[in-house]
Write a structure and sequence with these properties.
The chain has 9 helices and 8 strands. By secondary structure, the chain is α+β, with helices and mostly antiparallel strands. Among the domains are: 63 residues, Winged helix-like DNA-binding domain superfamily/Winged helix DNA-binding domain (Arc Repressor Mutant, subunit A), CATH 1.10.10; 75 residues, Ferrous iron transport protein A (FeoA) (SH3 type barrels). Helix 1 packs across helix 4, helix 2 packs across helix 3 and helix 4 crosses helix 5. The longest helix has 23 residues. The protein is globular and about 55 Å long.
Length: 220
Amino acid sequence: MATTGEHHPAFEEYCECIFELREDHIDVIQARVADRLGVSRPSVSEMIKRMELEGLIVIRGAKISLTSDGDVLAERVVRRHRIAERFLTDVLGLSWANAHHEAGKWEHIMNQDVESAMNRVLHNPTTCPHGNPIPGSSYRQERLSPLSDVLEGKLFTISRIPEELEFAPGVLETLEQANLKPGHSGTIVTSNKDGSRVVRVDDNDVALDEFTSSRILVLA
């Protein structure tokens, strides 16, 4: 078996995907992996077989889990992706969407020296720009609630924009433009029965559908 650091980028991509689906509390099955990565289900099936032989995953029924080796590989890739996103936004001034796209390339080619240098320049961040924890950092888990659970008229502070929203077309651009960012506070203006919300941040009202409002995590 290859040791961690010698795996093909495709294995890294799949381990990262499984890690992030688990982090977002989404059932890790082949269909969800295919949807997240935008590849065909037969392609996923073939790759899952290869990863099982490599000792990176185990399959129980329809569910896929990372082994300890798979977790190590996933955490390394996720860490580099989130540090790269932080560097691209905080230092280079890229937009959230551009940073997410570019970090997807950097995560596979960044070596330990570059990772350490970026981390030092950024003063050891604990989250990516969207509030998701950087593995291996000093991040402390908070008790968070979905924005959709916050009652009308109540104050909230955004904490996390989960990976699921980072892959939803146009969502990162909308949230960034509306200043719906971690650390920013707002109020619920309108709470609809279908789960959608109108929120007010920095005196601007923004309409969020149920998909988005149920996934943004806040302190309330």
